UniProtKB/TrEMBL annotation:
Xref: HAMAP family: TolB
PANTHER family associated with the record: PROTEIN TOLB, PROTEIN TOLB HOMOLOG
InterPro entries: 6-blade_b-propeller_TolB-like, Tol-Pal_TolB, TolB_N, WD40
Record's protein name: Translocation protein TolB
Similarity comment: family membership: Belongs to the TolB family.
Amino acid sequence: MKAFLLSLLLVPALVLAQAPVIEISGANFRPLPLASPAPTVQDGGDKKTAGAFDTAFSYDLTASGIFQVLDRAGFTADAKEGMTAASINFSRWADVGAESLVKVSLAQDGGRLRGELRLFNVATGHEDLKVAKDAPANEPRQLAHALADALYRHFTREASPFLSRITYVRKAGANRDVFVADWDGMGAQALTKGGTHILPTLSPSGQVGYTSYRKNRPDIYVQSPGGEAKAVVTDGQMATGVAFSPDGKRIAYALAEGESAQIYVSAADGSGAKAVTDTPYGLNTSPTWSPDGKRIAFVSNRGGSPQVYVMGADGSGVKRLTFQGNYNQTPDWSPRGDLIAFTARDERNAFDLFTVHAETGKVTRLTQDQGNNEEPTFSPNGRLIMFSTTRNGGAHLWVMTAEGNNQLPLPMEKGHWLTPDWGIAPAAK
């Protein structure tokens, strides 16, 4: 597995006053060693609230893949050190290997929680970033995600995944229910209660499409969090695997009739449906859109075994993309456009995750020898992949870089969590 690496690339001379930009590529680079001490709490602050903030903020930085977050147990600086450069003994931070230092101060004013973040270059003692955000006092994790996003944007000049949302299925007994949550699986909200509801996916507007057996047959529904479910596809024997186009105006899905299943494309409300595959007695499933909305990747057994194919959104120019293995499924197209992640069954009958380059067909393995790993889904910026794994028993949601490194469990309670989908755009809260 190719190691996940990261570069510090200096910006042009006209903006030398700015901090280096982290470019997440290149063979000679590494994650940035970052010290992040616990936040200080000002008068009126609540330690429990600060603890919830710190847990979410630390997880964001650790899971991002661009930072080497240093262990606080090794810190030698005075715990009462201030927030300004003049009050900081930078040599103490250099001693523990930190190249950057981020400090956060929290204060509560009425019903609002305010956080101030300051970022320092340890070598120069220069303050590179100062930003303040606020959130409802009972939403410290929201504030944590916002400040982590500001730090991520400062270093990468692109949006983080920390303000995005995910949807997934919780299996409990005979029930399969759909949930929507923050990117880390926390703050979950149930959309369904009881019955069988599977394969959820998020639209750019925050709606969730999923397959439901509420009428004793699989149909496709669309639902907003807190709203009522609306049936949009009720044709055929089985309608599954809905995927929203990047602009949210169209959906693609699989519709089974007789002994075949074809990919259909329609308006987001299900109108104007048109089959874009036509393989009698063949199965075509699991559509996923390219980020420009011009192509669709999908799974077909037309060649004898389930493989990943690519075609135009109108069904033209069908091209087989995977040739290794005899059971490839659940493709997800990166928002960056280059990679398609998928699940494959290997020679041991275990399921693992791979990516295939959409143009060259180059396949890269991401997981191995750690239970079954399935249902990959890219973060909105294409830098991370979330998936379901049985490596610790049951099924849990984990996250890793798009190169397969820095694999971490989401900080969710124990349960059986399946088929995650990451929104293709951040959703404002």
